[in-house]
Amino acid sequence: MIVEVAGILIQNIDGDFLMCHPTNHPDIWSLPKGHIEEGENPKDAAIRETIEETNLDINKLDGVLTFLTTHKYKIEGGRKTKNLHVFLFKSNVDMKKMELDIKCVSSFTTQNGEVLEMDKHEWFDYDKVMEKGMRFMKNILTDHKKDLFINLN
Q: 153, exposed or middle or buried, with CB in 10 Å at 0-12, 13-18, 19+?
């Protein structure tokens, strides 16, 4: 079974990334992402999910949104595959210095009655994403390092 999802990797002007902490993963961080709804295109889904999981409307921020990649990865013991459409938002300003109300404004309840979503947000540099990010995050950053940083040594 293939599940279509979309998300936005938000990069601050200094190169750091806004990461979200899923409530059901004690030590792992991710980008804001979620399922593409019926009739929705990947870009619109990524923008909607980013609003839901960060309270940030990319359309109202100063920066550039571009398509980065489609990344496939397995979940739940290999029974499902996610087809993740990743967009990159590169900010033209220092978002860390802005008074942004970054918070998750949505949640979902599992079949077991657990309420899940994103419970924390932090800015991570590349190395911290490589240390604490979900495996798919590490793969995306490794594969697209040249697209993320212009003057990388």
A: exposed
Report residue 134 as tokens.
């979900």
Q: Which residue has the tokens 């190169």?
A: 15
The span from the CA of 144 to the CA of 70, in Å, is 11
Q: Using the 8-state DSSP alphabet, how is residue 30 labeled? A: B
Please give the model's pTM, rounded to 2 decimal places: 0.88
Quote the CA–CA distance of 35 and 39 in Å, as a whole number: 12
Beta strand pairing status for 63-75 and 80-91?
Answer: antiparallel
Report which of 124, 103, 109 is spatially closest to residue 15, judged by C-alpha positions. 124
Joined together, the tokens standing for residue 103 give: 């918070």
Structure confidence by residue, pLDDT tens digits, 70-124: 999 887 666 789 999 999 999 999 999 999 999 888 876 666 776 567 888 999 9
pLDDT digits (tens, 9 = 90+) for 42-57: 999 999 999 999 999 9
Give φ, ψ of 56 to 5 degrees.
-110, 125
